[in-house]
Amino acid sequence: MSSEASRNEPTSAALLSAIAAKEARVAVIGLGTIGLPLATFAAASGFRVRGLDIDPTRVGQINDRTVHFEYSAILRDLDATHMRATTSATDLAGTDAFFFCIPTPVDDHGRIVLAHLQNAAQAVAPHIRAGALVVLESSVEIGTTRWFAKVIEDASGKVAGRDYHLAYCPERYNPGLPSEQHAQVIYGKKVNLGGPLSYHNVPRVVGGIDASSTALATRIYSEILASKIQPVSAPEVAEAAKLMENIFRDVNIALANEFAEVLGALGVDTYEVVNAASSKGFAFLAHQPGLVGGECIPVDTWYLIRQAERVGVACDLMRAARKVNDGVVDHVVGATLDALENEGIALPGAKVTILGTAYKENVYDDRVSPSRQIAQRLRAKGIDAVLCDPVVKAHNHRTQDTLVDLPEAIRDANAVILATAHREFRDISPESLAKSVRTRILVDARNALDHKAFRAAGFRVTAWGRALDG
Fold first, then answer.
1. What's the predicted TM-score (pTM) here?
2. For a FRET experiment, which of 12, 226, 322, 343 has its CA 20 to 30 Å from that of 155?
3. What is the DSSP code (8-state) at residue 48?
4. What's the structural domain count of the chain?
5. At what angle do helices 235-266 and 297-310 cross, to 10 degrees?
6. How do residues 349-400 score in pLDDT, each as one tens digit?
């Protein structure tokens, strides 16, 4: 690094010392799926944390310690001096390290929506003091971190690399349900809880706009998490790494889904094929066919497709993956309609129950829900599509769907679609379901149920990826 570049960077020694001593004051902006675990683990590691969120209900639940998420037990053990939430950006005055965990969805055309992130940056910018560290965690297009710096500069006059430090560290989180196994908190020490996919155990990458920013961000994550923190040369590298991780999954799930379509037509079990291929032990990573939703995989692929368009690159493989994975919804709907028609059931007025609106099992995140798309297509045929998700209903007050309790949802149903393999649904016995439904039609879009048992109970079973129909 040149001497001129060094002079332009903020002094970092004091902040580095404060981080090491757990005296740095931390703010997490956005207390959703990503921000709340970060705030919780930062506080449990000894930092004094203030969380900012625009939802007063969410803030109240956090401060009352009644919010439900995977690490609720850790949060309950934190006193208000270590973890407190607020709806006012003015409460962040005096903060040393700011972490932005703001939703960045896509619009109906697959283009990234940065309005929420921009609003958060503008609200917080006046409270970013000289020498502070700012870290962006939201999934974004390549180059967004530097755009983010310009938003802060326009709102406050503060320049990244001169007045404050700036880095990008993409979130990596495998969410689950609240669990009492995460109950131990030791102030001022790294929290060592849970298995290899627990929040604190997943490796992270950090890319700052300069060496000081990278060093500070790497150090503070090292104090919060037990995992390896890998510095990279620039924010753009970290941004691109996040996209590659999720697009890799999208493309390989699409391959599995395309196999499912072909092998299903040939009477071959896709899941058995995947297991057989996995025996190779190298140069193969198993991906299962199925519905793809959530605010990660489909969204990140569209980020890069739309950004590539602006620089004249077609991204044919990524487009194909999106088409294949989105098409699974049509396969599920088609299988349901075929089963109803084979039973002589008129489509208008038929009742179809969709079990699960969350994008995967045992989580309450129902953003970009394939189940919602299935319901819309069925309703277009005049079908009464009923949505049931006890996990989302219990934990997600922000859901946009009307969710029906399980007994009512399955009562007199002409068909049942398993769209999310929650434990509650896996535990349904064929006999109990048979007593409630009007017609014994089961479409298992997750390959999660005992199909032989349901067929023995008289159900016509169709499962995506398996040659079962009868």
1. 0.91
2. 12
3. E
4. 2
5. 110
6. 999 999 999 999 988 899 999 999 999 999 999 999 999 999 999 888 788 8
